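User: I'm writing a tutorial on reading structure tokens. Could you give me a worked example: one chain, its sequence, then its tokens, then a sentence or two explaining what the tokens reveal?
Assistant: Sure. Here is the example chain.
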Amino acid sequence: MPNLLLRRIRVARERFLPFLRPAEDNEARLRRHVREGELYGLFYNKREPVSMAVTADVSASFAAGGREAGLAPALEGLRVCECTLLATASAFRGRGCGTQLLMRLCGLYDADYDVMIVGTGDTPRMRRFYEGRCGFHPCFRRADFFMDGYPQPLIEDGVTLRDMIVFCRFLRPRGMPGA
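And here are its predicted structure tokens:
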């Protein structure tokens, strides 16, 4: 897709909440991710948002004694960033825009982080996207993630979501963790 410009959005970020809403059903979580993370977008002809992502430094969670250190021993002590939200405009889905955004973010972060993680529902479509298209590998699960904090069960591609599967991609050559 030509003419796609990567931009970091620093001001008036709330105006992109409707764009990001398909990536997060919980309004409070959506607002927290946008408020606390870094917002990036791919824009067509410099103005039209095509795909957007929010990232956050989660290294402390994987430090010794961190919240998720025991879940992914291969990530302990590493500098870890997480893509907490990823959304693509419906008119641009299936055209590689989400993949392009994620790959550009991996390239942008490779100087400051060892690994990028991303969590999603465990569906065949999401596995194909993260593993097949983006080169991520299953790393660990966040048990009952979709059962907590959501008023109704979340169903994606006919699958009722329960656990979040977390994929990782090492940003520099290094051994891969187990699933």
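What the tokens reveal: The chain has a mean pLDDT of 90. The radius of gyration is 16 Å.
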